[in-house]
Amino acid sequence: MTLWTYHPPPGDIAAILESGLQISPAVAEILAKNGIKTAEEGERHLRPRLAHLADPALISNVQKAAGRIARAIASKEKISILGDYDVDGVTSTTLLVDVLRALGADPSYFVPRRLEEGYGMSAAVVGRVLAEGGHCGLFIALDCGTNSLEETRALSRKGVEVIIIDHHRSKDPPAEGCILVNPHVYDNEGPGAPWRLFCTVGLVFKVCHALLKLLRAQDCQAAGEIVLKNHLDLVAMGTVADLVPLRGENRLLVRHGLDRLRETSREGLRALKKTSGVLDDARLLPTDVSFRLGPRINASGRLADAILPVQMLLESNPATCADIAERLNGMNRERQEIERRVCAEATTQLEAMSDAYPHALCAHGDWHPGVVGIVAGKLCRHFNRPCIVLGSEGAGMAKGSGRGVNGVNLVEALHACMDILDSWGGHPMAVGISILEDRVGEFRQRFDAAVNALLKGEKPCAEPLQIAAWMDRAAITDDFLDQLELLQPFGEGNPEPIFGVADITLRTPPVLFGAKNYRFQIQLDSWRRLGVVAWRQDTPPPPVDTPLDLAVKLAWNYYNGRRYPHAELIQWRQAK
User: Fold this and answer.
1) Which of 275, 306, 329 is the last residue of a domain?
2) Which of 125, 242, 391, 413 could pair covalently with 117 via S-S, beta carbons 3.0-4.6 A apart?
3) For residue 408, what are the domain limits?
4) pTM greater than the 0.70 cutoff
């Protein structure tokens, strides 16, 4: 049984927030644990407004980027845009192309062909951009390019100016001769900056905001007609799918962006929602992006040509959008089949070497490179240690992705192995590498040793179950659920709170349904009951006539135009 932990908020901050905001003690606790100290801060968190966004000019080089784009539009320069093939890159490309078109520009746009050109701003894809798009005066790389120093210099030698908007960590000083918008590169943007944890589509939104402000100050009529908040559907999708923390401005943009996504007029998104089973009028949550919309966009980049979802999102013809959405849906089904096979084969391989590499694992096989990142995430959770999964790329090379665990910075671990890697990069929790196949065995040993050094000899521990607040069952009221909804959206870095409800006794046994699922009811007071559902449980259902503690998630359940109080059981234990 997982350890349950509960840490009360510091001092009397929760009591101050409860009184000042007239909210429940449990919601006040959650706000206090999120670092909120005053009622004013709490109000901004519960009811964030777009007016709360910081001035985009505060981000290093955003004004320079906006100014250079404005000059390109005014002089009718040829603009070429290269975006990465994941959801962040696709939505970033769509957003920038959309805004530039509305301003009278006609940019060309490209996405790397994963199997032929590799990841990011490679020499191969840059060559294709220049060959197919013609010589451009301005080249804009989105969600890639920070570490493409030679490619940037090559463009500069051809007389092409480069703007890079990216959020990937840098291994080297930024390239000279380009405008780089990347909060992770500049020391003046400390960890508290509200845009520090943006993914690329958030940064593109900021650049577009600065561009429109600049052009409006010049009395540009087209800039005055653009309603930038209408593009927040794209920002929400890219931000959620890229697993950046939903805190601060990220949370604000996603909160408003999900509302925009629900009522979007973008035909491509309407078609994607339909084929994904997301109803037009349904209330959207980050999980709808993570598990329905996002995977269908990613499937194209993993298996085929990621230009398809960009074309769909920019298209206005409903029939064309529906056709592309169905193609993406088919690719996603194919991706799922490939993923299941690779996961099974990689699991068997790693189980055989698990004892030899107790701190970090690396699987290698003749696997499709488009699914190795997803498989690495599953294996990481299964073995509770960092995992890298490599697929054979041809010419004696292996390429793949890795996922990490709490307490291990994968970038630091790979830095200790960089002398045997052909290329590498990424985030502390997700990385990509390529390596000669005959060095994979050596890499396994070096990677395991590097992670061991970061863990200082300890094994990664399973995360304890964090109880956000203990609640009296009578306090689970409609008003409380309304307040809890104001804490949305939940996601990476802002997890949905788990509440402890003590001393519950079931009078009737849970009802089993499906595989490892069951439901039951608990009595809240003399007349109210709360339905509880448990999904995919590996432990037996709770017994009747025994005092229990329940760890649950609480929310409104929306169905057929009505809403119902709902609880999801995370774990149960006998009451202490």
Assistant:
1) 329
2) 125
3) 338-455
4) yes
